Amino acid sequence: MYQIVEPKETSRAAAFELWRNSPTPMVTFLKTLDVSRLVRMSRRKGLKFNKLLCYCIGQAATGIDEMFQLPVGDVFHRFDGLCIDVIVNVNKGGIQYCDIPFTDDFQKFSADYDRLTREVAETGIYNDMCDSLMCIGTSALVKYDIDAVINAHSGYWNNPFIAWGSYRKGLFRTTLPVSMQFHHAQMDGQQAALYLDRLQETIKTLKI
Q1: Beta strand extents in the chain (DSSP E only)
Q2: What gap in Å lies between CA 128 and CA 100, rounded to an integer?
Q3: Nearest to 86 by CA among 100, 67, 74
Q4: Positions of the chain with pLDDT under 50
Q5: CA-to-CA distance for 111 and 113, rounded, in angstroms?
Q6: pLDDT at 59 (0 to 100)
Q7: Which DSSP letter does residue 2 get?
Q8: Is 151 helix (H, G, I), strand (E, B) or coil?
Q9: Which residue in 40, 109, 188, 189 is deepest, having the highest Cβ count within 10 Å?
Q10: Beta carbons of 87 and 149 less than 8 angstroms apart
């Protein structure tokens, strides 16, 4: 679950006042990641590339306080844990969202990922954990060679959002352009850049 935190009691007090009522509070960063290790690991262990990347997305967020603090109305919701939201193709057609609870234990995360995405594909029902866990949204358009996704701000979905397309094979490494959207009341560019650096380091050093 979450705790309600008054912004004035946090280090984000000034930023919250500046950005909470902005009609365009979302900021988007772009970064090209070296995902060579994930591609090799995916092939060697027979694991889905997107599953590995989603695990790294969660792992990189641990230890960054701002990633657990979501602006909602006039307050922050402070969460104790994370989930990674993925988009699932429903068997009967269309798409649906699926929240995967994050844990450092990759085997458990992997099992939850497989089980929950399969259930959502079969039922078409959104597995929603956003009331109990801080959600990092993702969108994987792996069939398409795109550079970035800049999401529209609905006024409701303030969570961090990471999107990517297909990875690009080079002579010596494989790269993946990603875009990260975040609410400026939640974090500044420094924290977002730190997160993306941590994501790259997590990918390069991943052991499962």
Answers
A1: 2-5, 26-34, 69-72, 75-79, 82-89, 95-101, 134-140, 161-164, 168-169, 174-183
A2: 9
A3: 100
A4: none
A5: 5
A6: 98
A7: E
A8: coil
A9: 109
A10: no
